[in-house]
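Reviewer comment 2.1 asked that we show a complete input and output for one of the modelled complexes. We chose the L-MYO-inositol-1-phosphate case, as it is the one discussed in the main text.
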Amino acid sequence: MQGSANLNLMIKAARKAGRSLVKDFREVENLQVSSKGPGDFVTKADREAERIIMEELRGARPSYGWLGEETGEAAGEDPTRRWIVDPLDGTTNFLHGLPHWAVSIALEHKGEVVAGVVFDAAKDELYYAEKGLGAFVNESRLRVSGRRNMIEAIFATGVPFGGKSTLPATLQDLARLMPVCAGVRRFGSAALDLAYVAAGRYDGYWERGIQPWDMAAGLILVKEAGGFVGPVREGRGILESGAVIAGNAQLFEPLCKILRQPA
Ligand code: LIP
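Response of the prediction step:
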């Protein structure tokens, strides 16, 4: 795909941050056995990855706004555009030496995500999409799955760190959904969960209580791969509400129906 200059910039930044994280990830396993554990080391790796991304993106587009997991929000001279960045989505996996985490970078224009990159650096899978141009992983085009029957479908979900206030609702979701589908997975990275929906590996995904940077890039991957995304509570913006449902064209509505039932 012949992407825009912005998409190429995002890919360059994601690859550079990904290389730095892969180097650090190799160290993490050694640190597991130390009494202090790898906690501080991972925090540093995460911050360094965001620094790399910020240097690339803000260096090239100084007027754009910024929303990053580690550095927070900064308005830009151009109020219509902002980067939404999670340098390390799936931090807990990274910390435990599990190779399932990603760099996530989105570009928002006038409140809409118009480009997204999710880089699974440990597996060297680069997912990217741009509005109207489709979604890809490395050189291959992405398509959501074609499954039509709930009972054959696999869904993914997440429970944000510590469960917090979303745990009871998520347990209720599971009680309603698991008897009518083939299974539910919880892999620990919202960005990759959405990328896997785009790739047709999962038939759908939902999560409550997540942040805009966890999902912004993944949302456009799903849409450009022919899937649907929506908020858990209708009438609210997905990024603002922090609760998302994504699915293939046939199962998105049935999934929404189950997850939107009153408590
Ligand atoms: C993670 C999300 C994941 C959620 C985790 C966490 P982080 O993001 O992607 O879906 O269940 O608890 O919030 O913190 O690794 O960037």
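The helical segments are 5-31, 39-60, 91-95, 167-177, 190-198, 212-224, 238-241, 252-259. We note this here for comparison with the apo prediction described in Section 3.2.
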